[in-house]
Amino acid sequence: MPPHGDDAQEAGLMRSMLFVPGDSPRKFEKASEGKADALIIDLEDSVVTEKKAEARGLTLAMLKSRPGPHQLYVRVNALDTGMTLADLAAVMPGRPDGIVLPKSQGGDDVRQVATWLEALEAAAGITVGATRIVCVATETAGSIFGLGSYKGCSPRLAGLMWGAEDLSASLGATEKSSGGVFHSPYRLARDLCLMAAAAAEVAPIDTVYTDIDNLAGLEQETRAARRDGFSAKALIHPKHVDVVNAAFEPTEAERSWAEKVIAAFAGNPNSGTLRLDGQMIDKPHLRAAKKILGQS
């Protein structure tokens, strides 16, 4: 059986990634009481410019407190702000599990951050290469054209997240969606990010859901994300966590199918294709089955 509930946190799976303001220990404490698989302590959008320096110190303290089983990431400020390196230098002594890089333009940005991390890890006594990188990869019009450059850019790259809020400003759009459905530019960004993550063999992460009280809509959007291949979703409110975690759980029918597929190939290790319940299955089906059960 795949891990779920608290066991999923212990197994290091990522379904839910909850943003927490980097200047609010109170909100961090509340988020730590929930079941998000990862907390993203945010130094970017949720912290005003005059509080950036203070937030770095508070974020370091949050990282060092390690109150639960959650993976802890830090979203730094974008490279074009000139604040990224100072953010990294301030928080790396807290040994975050990963860094979230906003407004990433492509693989070169990942390589730049990876170079800094290598030096900062060595200085902090952290195993070099241990800190992962997740990129928010669709926040500008130009970033869409860099999506194909993530494949092979760095072994640190762990995920690509698509985002709609900043993309809207970049495009000069007046509306992102209507009736709970994204308009075509955002569907394009979503789909290309999903494909870029699959090509790079990293986690595809769905964007935040901004209608805070519409839990039915959140569940519908998350199930659609899982259906299409996303493995995690970013969140901005603690009450979204349980809905998202449940939506990413495989159904009993999916578990049963996956177990049958894995057992069939285990019993026929030299076969490339097999017949199962009247259907032909091959190695892509085996990979899909392992993904359902949380196996690598």
From TrEMBL:
Q: Which residues form a coiled coil?
A: none
Look up the record and name the cofactor or cofactors this protein needs. Answer: Mg(2+)
One GO biological process term: oxaloacetate metabolic process
Give the binding site residues for Mg(2+).
E139, D166
Binding of substrate, residues:
R75, E139
Give the domain of life. Answer: Bacteria
Q: List GO molecular-function terms, semicolon-separated.
A: catalytic activity; magnesium ion binding
- Tell me what this protein is called: Blr6797 protein
* Species this protein is from: Bradyrhizobium diazoefficiens (strain JCM 10833 / BCRC 13528 / IAM 13628 / NBRC 14792 / USDA 110)
